[in-house]
Amino acid sequence: MASPKQQGAGRAGGVRGTSSSTSTAISRRRWIASSSCSALTLLRGQRDALALDLEGLRTKLRTGGRKMPKAVKFPRARVDDVVAVACMRSLYSTVEDLELVPDMQVYQKDFWLYRAEIQPEYVDGLSPLSPRIGDLTDPLYLDFISYSQFHVAGQKLQQAGADAALVDDFEARVGASILSRLGVGDLQGDPPAPAVRGPGEEGEFRSDFVEGGAVALPEPPATAPAVDLDLTTRLREAAAAGPRPLADAWLQHLCSKGYALRATTSEVPPDPPTLGLSKFEARVVGPATLWGTEFLQAESSSRRYLPLANAFDAYATKVLLKRAGFDAGCEIRSDEKNAIQAWTVRKYV
Length: 349
Prior knowledge:
The protein is an alpha+beta fold. It has one domain. It has helices spanning 4-62, 81-97, 104-126, 139-159, 164-181, 229-241, 243-256, 290-297, 300-305, 312-323; strands at residues 205-206, 217-218, 262-268, 277-285, 326-334, 338-347. Helix 2 runs parallel beside helix 4. The longest helix is centred in the first third of the chain and has 59 residues, at 4-62. Mean pLDDT is 82; it is low at 195-225.
């Protein structure tokens, strides 16, 4: 039989054993709880990362793998509404005239779907600024909406298997339409004379770019001169001085209408010097199409089918130079504030 001392020791040992077991169980539960929290945190982190990956994938799919450029946040001028509408309608009518799609409703649908997909990201990138959706005089909106239309137009050119001749025709039609809508007359031959449409003559159909889609609204009969005599005279005089002065005069006119903040042109000596060949550079500061130009240049297919991007001014410049008797080519690059156009011009023989 155990002595009282031995029995006490046994009870103490039992208490110590029970206390040790309890402590171990508590530690185990704490470890499990801690591990569960860590696992939950890890799972949440993985979920968030997956969501970001999925959103990034969606963005890549929407933009063809291109990264959306930084938003243009420095102040730009309000664009004259006549100039803005002339530019947008010229693009739309060119797609229609070339019959790049069997039905313009297809083009409208594709354009508005694409616009709706990328608009939220564009608007977020502009914060705290906010574009006035539907207002073509707002450069933030005109930049975005013209990019969207040109992007889809480029897709249609690609789907049509456009060769160099069709791309050149596309550029010529866009440029000629802009000049016509803004009243630019003939640069050669007799001085321009006012021309009016006869009463009852219906104008072209115009597109409603505010609410989306082309609404068949015939323009009212024109009563004002179709030719802007002052502008045409200034361009004729500039053309007589050469290709660079002509391009400069056109750009200064657009700047006066808010299309860009300012523009300069400078001669670039050809290397090597070539008879009949000249080069000049046009630097357009803060154009209303700056963001879209950078975005379109980021895609190889757009560079192939839309080498002038969405630079409406360049489309018209190229046509002006041709009307003045010059064959012209242009390479465009851009930075955070400027669109730089490198022009190579050759006099027609």
